[in-house]
Design a protein that fits this description.
246 residues; seven-stranded parallel sheet; 9 helices; single chain; 43% helix; alpha/beta
Length: 246
Amino acid sequence: MNAMRAVLTGHNRGLGEAVAAELLDRGIAVLALARRGNPALAARHGERLREVALDLADAAALAAWLGSGMLQGWLAGADEALLINNAGTLQPMGPLALQDPAAVARAVASNVGAPLALAAAFAAAEGPQARRVLHVSSGAARKPYPGWSVYCATKAALDHHARAVQLDAVPGLRICALAPGVIDTGMQAEIRASTSERFPLRDRFAEMQASGGLVAPAECAMHLVDFLLDEDFGREAVADLRDLGR
């Protein structure tokens, strides 16, 4: 089997933690970027998990890290490499006049700037002949929600980035922006903790959780990684895990 290595953002909780565990359990080494580490994963997987403490909303810190050579070193010697841009923020929620401009700037940096910068550095690094980029998108990228203008716009940016990169037809590079469905993570807890003023559809999501309509992170991660490693990955630039029968 060819040596495969992954780069993943936001592995400290939620879907990112579950995806990291799934990759590591399949024998794929992971370079994980997040503000905080994941001691449980580190203890379980040892050297196969390399953690980097990095605030992806800090463009200067991200640029400095990308210039450190660590990404290139991680990918050197791999036959195939994966980049999963999972980290992101739902905040700020609310109608436009209630949004903190500084929080808007951080959300754009975290949800758009970091994934696009990482994808560019990942594509340019020497090493693997085969590379796959997965942007974790959202149904909110394709359907507007009141109170979520920043989240909808930033996730839509990832969708369109994937479409444009696919048109570049770079040899050996595949990309897809994937909506994973509604998952039982901290983001859903944020939604339920919000007010109707900030998010008018709050009660709908609360009812979904109460009725067992949320997918467990581990289940979603298993299907996401199956899709990422499938021979058809990248055929469509934008996809929804719920439409793939997974």
